[in-house]
Amino acid sequence: MTATSPAPAPAAAAFDDGAAVRVRGLVKRYGDRTVVDGVDLDVRRGEVFALLGPNGAGKTTTVEVLEGVRRRDGGDVTVLGEDPARGGRAWRGRLGVVGQSTGSGNALTVRETLDHFARYHAAPVPTAELLADVGLTDAARTRVDRLSGGQRRRLEVALGVQGRPELLFLDEPTTGMDPVARRQFWTLVEGLRARGTTVLLTTHYLDEAAHLADRVGVISAGRLVEVAAPADLGAELRRVATVRWLEHGEYREVTTPEPAAVLRDLVAASPTGDVPGLTVTRPDLEDVYLQLVAAAEGETR
Amino acid sequence: MTAARTATRTVPATRPAPPSAAAIGLARIGLELRLFARDPGQVVFSFAYPVIMLAIFGSVFGDEVVLPGIGFREYFLAGIAATGVMLTSFQAVGTAVAEERERGDLARLQTLGTPALSYAIGKAGQVVVTTAVQLALLLTVAATAFDVALPTDPGRWVTFAWVVLLGILAGTVLGLAVATVIGSARSAGTGIPAFAVVLQFISGVFFIGSDLPDWMDRVAAAFPLKWLVQGMRSVFLPDSAAVAEQAGSWEHGRTALVLAAWVIIGTVVCARTFRWRRAA
Asked: Where do the coiled-coil regions begin and end (chain A) (predicted)?
C-alpha cells in the first residue's frame, strides 16, 4: 500500500513538525457503504482548518478517526506524530475534543462539572477563566440538565479546551448557539489560535469557516474536493463573472471568464458611452461551495 | 514559514504527565456519590426497598417459626441483606453503565483519555459506600423495630465483611460486563431487574434453602446470589440452622471460591469487552 501511494516526502516526513495532522488515503466503510473514500488531508501546526460539507459527507467520521475513537478501514493517519488507533494517554492529553453530540446532562452544576473534569488534566485552565471564556459565568450554579441547548454546547467547548490542548477538534461546535454565543465562540477560537493551538473544526456555516479558518477543505460524498484559503476557494469557479446591464428596459446577463472584454464591447456599442444598470459580480463563497458540492455529488451518482 | 510558526508557538512542548488512574478514580467516586445522592429514585430504591421488604414479610410471616428457635424475621433478614447487596452493585451498576454509554458520558471519558480502571474504581467506590449505608439502615431497623438479635461474636462480623465485600466486587464487575453485552439502556433497564427478581426466587431469598427443588438449587448455585444468601445466613442464624441448607452446612470455603470466581470472570469479561461507545 505504501509502495503504490505517491509519497512526495521521504523518511523525514515522519518528523515534520509542520504537520499536526497527516492523512493519506483514508477509507471508512459502514457495512458496504463507503462514507470516507480516500481522503488526503494535512493540517499544519498552529493553523485553524475548517472541514466544510453537507450532512452525511463524512466530516464527523473523518474527525472521529483522527480522534482515535473510530477504526479506519484503510489509509495512513498521523496525529501529533502518532497513529490515533494506537495513541495512549499522554497522546490523548495533548488533544481536545468537542464532539457533535451533546448529552442530556446530569444533576451536577456547570461549575461542579468543570471542577470535576479539571482533575483529569495535568495543568487545567482555572474554572473561573473557562466560565468567562465561554460566557457561562452567570450559569455556573445551574444544573447541567437545566441548561439550554446552546449553553450545553458552550459547556462542551469549555471541557474541550480545559486541558490546554495542542490540537483541538471541534465538530460542529456552534450548532444551536445564538448569534451572540457564536461570536463569543469565534473570539475564543481566535484566542486559542493566537496562543498557538491547532484547530480542526467541522461546520455547515460558511461564514464561520470564512471568518475563522486559515484554510478550508470542502468534503462531499466522502471525498475532499478542494482545499484552499477561504478567499481562494474555488479559484476556477470564481474566475467566472456575471455581467448584468439594462437594455431596452430589460435586464440582460452574460456569464464570462473575461468580463473586461464584455464591458469594452458594451461601452463601445453604447451611443452615449454609458451602460445603465451595469453590475459585475463574482460568485461568493456560498455559490462556490454549492457548486463544488454539487459537482462532487454528481460524480458519485 | 514553518519555522516562524514553531518559534512563536506558546503551547508547551513538554507537558507534565496526566494524573494517575487512582487519582482520577478517586475523583470519580466523589462524582458518582454526588450523582447518586441527587437521584431520588435511586436513593429511595436502594435504601428503602430492603427495609420495606423486611417490614412486609416480617409483618405477614413474623410469627412463623422456620426452624427450632429461629423465627422467620431472622431468616428473611439474611436473604434481604444479600438481595440488597445485589441491587446496589449488580443492578445499579448494570443499568447506570448502559445509560451513561447511551447518553455519551462514556464517549467524553474516552476522548479525555480516562483509564477504564478509573471508571471501574468510581463505580466500585460508589457501590461500597451505598451498600454500607443500606445495610446499616436495614440492620438498625431489623434490630430496633423487629427485635432481631444481631450477632455479638466478632468472628461472625468478619464473615459478614468478606461475604459483603466479595458480593460487592462480583456485582460491580458483572454489572459492568452485562451492561456492555446488553448494549441498549432500555433493554438493560428492564432486563437486569427482571433477571434479579428471578434470581432472588431461585436463590432462596424468600424460601428456605432445603425446600427448593434440587434442580432449582443447582441452577441457583451457578450464580453468586445463592452464595451471598447462604453466607448471610451463616452470619445471622445460629449454627444449628445450617442443617436447613441443601448441603447441610454453611460451606464457607465454597462460598468464597464461587464468589471469587465470579469476580475473576467478571473482570476478565470487562477487560476484554468494555466499550466506551455503542457499536456503530
From this structure: none
CB contacts, 8 Å: A44 with chain B: 2, 5
Report ipTM for this prediction: 0.86
Please compute the mean of the pLDDT values over residues B6-33 and round it to a whole number.
80
Q: Do the domain assignments include residue B218?
A: yes
Can you read off the three cell numbers belonging to residue A98?
A: 468537542
Contact of B112 with chain A, judged by CB distance below 8 Å, is answered with yes
B251 located within any domain: yes
Q: How many CA atoms lie within 13 A of A84 on its CB side?
A: 26
State residue B244 phi and psi, 5-degree precision: -80, -10
Q: Using a CB-CB distance cutoff of 8 angstroms, which residues of chain A are in contact with residue B23?
A: 119
Q: Of A90, A112, A166, which is closest to B11 when you measure between CB atoms? A: A166
Q: Which CATH class is domain A11-231?
A: alpha beta
* A69–B34 CB contact, under 8 Å: no
What are φ and ψ of residue A60, in 5° steps? -65, -40
**Stretch B267-278: mean pLDDT, rounded?**
91
The domain of B221 spans 18-237+244-273
How far apart, in whole angstroms, are the C-alpha atoms of residue B229 and residue A173?
52
**Are residues B19 and A94, on separate chains, in Cβ contact within 8 Å?**
no
- Least Cα separation, residue B18 to chain A (angstroms): 5
Please check whether residue B2 lies inside any domain of the structure: no
- Whether residue B9 lies inside any domain: the answer is no
Residue B280: list chain A partners with CB under 8 A. Answer: 30, 70
Residue owning grid cell 465483611: B161
- What pLDDT does residue A301 have? 53
Q: Which of B197, B194, B21, B176 is nearest to B99 (CA)?
A: B176
Nearest residue in A to B36, CA atom: A107
Pairing of strands A198-203, A215-220: unpaired
In chain B, the residue whose alpha carbon lies closest to the alpha carbon of A169 is B111
Q: Which residues of A touch B104 (CB under 8 A)?
A: 99, 101-103
Report the Cα–Cα distance between both ends of chain B, in Å, rounded: 41
Work out the minimum CA distance from B40 to partner chain A, whole angstroms. Answer: 11
Structural domain count of chain B: 1
Contact B210, B246 (CB under 8 A): yes
**Length of chain A, in residues:** 301
Backbone angles phi, psi at B254, to 5 degrees: -65, -35
Least confident of A12-21, A38-47, B170-179: A12-21
pLDDT in tens, A89-131: 999 999 999 987 766 678 999 999 999 999 999 999 999 999 9
Q: To the nearest whole angstrom, how far is the Cα of B112 from the nearest Cα of chain A?
A: 6
Domain positions in chain A: 11-231, 236-300
pLDDT of residue A240: 85
